[in-house]
Each structure stands twice: as structure tokens, then as C-alpha cells.
Sequence to fold (448 residues):
Amino acid sequence: MENKLNRRAFVSVASMAGAGFTLGFPNISIASGIDTLKPAILGGPQAHSGMFPAWPVVSEIEEKAMSDVLQSKKWCRLGSNKVDNFETEYKKLTGAKHCLATSSGTSALYTLLGALDIGPGDEVIIPVYTFIATYNVVVLNYALPIFVDTDIESFQIDANKIEVAITKQTKVIMPVHIGGSPANLDKILEISRKTNIPVIEDACQAHLAEWRGKKVGNYGLAGAFSFQASKNLNSGEGGAIITNDEKLAQTCYSFHNQGQGGRVTGFNPGTGTRGTNMRLSEFQGNLLLAQMTRVVEQTNRRTENASYLTKLLNGIKGITTAKLYEGTTRSAYHLYMFRYDKNHFAGLSRTKFMDALTKEGVPCSNGYGMMNKNEYVTGLAKNKHYLRIYGEKTMNQWLERNQCPQNDLLTGEQSIWFFQNMLLGPRSDMDQIAEAILKIQKYAAEIG
Ligand SMILES: Cc1ncc(COP(=O)(O)O)c(C=O)c1O
Fold:
């Protein structure tokens, strides 16, 4: 699970005067004499002020969006049009034929599994390296979540390990585009075609990310997005489903609207046999329309800064940035993910490295952990409903099936994240992040 940020202990902006040093590749030379300066953790000046761009961005357009809905006195989507308008715009943005707004990313995934009538006895394949919501939506349907290990180089689901996880009970493959970078969709779709098992893309972190020039969420049967506060498109809470399958779109609409098909309140028979309330409010719909006026520009800014930062960090021994698969034409960079190797930092532990980085004014997190070993997850094997549905033997086998050694290695010692808002500032922020790491590397033995 995401760690709380430990940040913004700004003391003073470091003035890095003097001779620069080079990062081991041509044409990028980091300004100025930091080799003579100590890391902040040893009493030197911070490499960065700690003041990365605030998130979310708010202006008069959001104020107007809120007050328009307030004054209209139409706060529910039924019988009104703001959420409808948002769905139209999000369709245009993603190139999908259908879009359904939902109350959260979790409810987008839950609605999809509900519309596909996933239930007890079914298995759903998910990556182990993800936010807990990916797991929860499977368990809410009393289906069995089957973890697939992580490709340590990309932080994504290891698509080469999906096929062995498939059984007769497998009903859905649910890859996640973690950090906003696409999972290996070519390989995943090949397996889906071969086995006839549908793919639901958990694109909750991947707004505007692209695989081979097309927005993610369009590749599987459907994709789910989150607009929760930390996300690259934000309405506090919120979500959306995109799909190119009309029948599924209708069933999802009914499911998220208490099984009713109509656009106004009242009894309007829908599609499917299950339902609940997962509707987005008009406030959130209109807020999203306002936030969307900046989303393309912000995404471009993140892409530019992230590729520059990648060039800088790839020049530092012991730092390995997350690989993007060959089909990736755009990462959303919801998270900037990289691996840390203490052997190139005089044995300095990841915890101490992150502590030193934070003191430099550069917030970071070690990211997700070993979900498969988390007590909340292993406890499922003792859940009375699961024992009744699957029996003790199957639940014990389930625990055994959930081994993910690569993920253990990644999360136990190596993974580190920066956050999307850190990529929204000037390029000099990227220089200062790299400077911070180089300072720590130079003084690693002393820090340790
Ligand atoms: C990969 C992933 N899936 C699902 C979700 C759930 O989205 P929400 O928080 O909007 O319910 C999130 C949110 O963090 C996520 O990161």
C-alpha cells in the first residue's frame, strides 16, 4: 500500500555554485560544485526546495463548475446532464465508443465484474504489484483472486507468467497499467485470444497512456479509470469505464444504477440481474470537465520531464528506471518508478537512502509491498464464506499458489517512487532530483 509522504521540510534553497560534474553520458552536465557540498542529511544544503507543484490545480473554472451545479439544484445525474457531458468528453479523449462514469475506480472495476456476472467459484487473474482495490473487487464478488508475479524490470504484471495461472475457473484477466505505464498488452491479448478469457484493463492510474498509438482501456473488453484525489485527473473521488462493446456498456449502466436502464429516476427495466448504486454526482462530473481542460497539457509536461529524468538517472550507477515495453507510445507517469541497488551506494539501505533523499527536499515512497503476504489477504483463507464456497484444501492451495518471488525482491529492497506532481514543474526540478541522488551516492558511506 502507498506510504504516507514524508516531505516538505524545506529549510533553504541550495545555491549550487562552482564547477559541475558529468553524469557519465554525453551532453548532460549537472550544474555546479555539489561535490563540494554535503548532503542535507549531513548538514549540507538541500538539493531541492521541496516545493514541487501543488496538486490539484484549481482556478475560477472549478469555482464556476461547482457553483453552476449548486445553483442548478440538480445534483444527481438522473434527469440532469453534467455527468452525461463528462462521459461524452471522456469518450472523445480516449477514443472509446462508450463511457460510463462511476463513483470511484473501485466501483468501475466492481461494476465491470458485476456486469460480467463474476461470482463464487470463479477465478480472476491480477498482478500482485497493485493497489489493494484490484484485489478487493474480486473478493467482493466471492471470486478467487489469483496473483501473478511482477516483471521486476517494468514493475508490471509478468505477462509470461499469466498462462500457467489460468485454470478452468478463470473468467477474467485483469492486468493493471501500474504507475500509468502500459502492461505488456501484446502478450496479454495473445493469451486472451488463445484462451477466450476476456481482459479487463485496470487503467486506474493510466489516464491518456497509450499502447501502439491507442489509449489504454481500449484494448481489453473494457478499461477502468480512477479520479480519486491523487490521480492525474481528479474529482476527489470518481471513476469511469470505457468499452467498445455496446451490450457490456448497457449492462454496466444498469448495474451501476440499481439494475435500472433509464436516465431518470423511477423503474426502468435494465440489462442483467444484479445492480447497486455507483453513480457519479453532478458536482464531480462538472469538476472533471473543468479539470479536463488541463489534462493534455499536464500529461505532455509529465512525459517531457520524465524522459529527461530517465536520461539523467540512467547515468547513475545503482539506479535503474522502470522499463517501458516496446509497444508503449505514452506512459501517464502517475508514478515515476525506479529500482535502487545499495551495492552502488556503499551498502546504504533503501530506507536510509530514502530518508536522505527526503531531507534533500525530494519526496519519495517505497511503494507497494508484498500484497500476497499481507495479513489482510492471507486471512481470506480463513474467511467463513470462502471456506464454505471453496473448502479448506482449495484455500490452502490458494495460499501456496500465491508465491511471487520477483515481487518480494522488488518490494523488499529495491522499489522507489516519485509522484506525478513532481513532474509538473520546470526541467530544473529534474536536475535537482538527480543532483540529490548523486550527492547521497558520494557520501553514502558517511551517511550509512
Ligand atoms: C491500480 C488501481 N486500481 C484501482 C484503484 C481504485 O480507485 P479508487 O481509489 O478511485 O477507488 C486505484 C486507486 O488508487 C488504483 O491505483
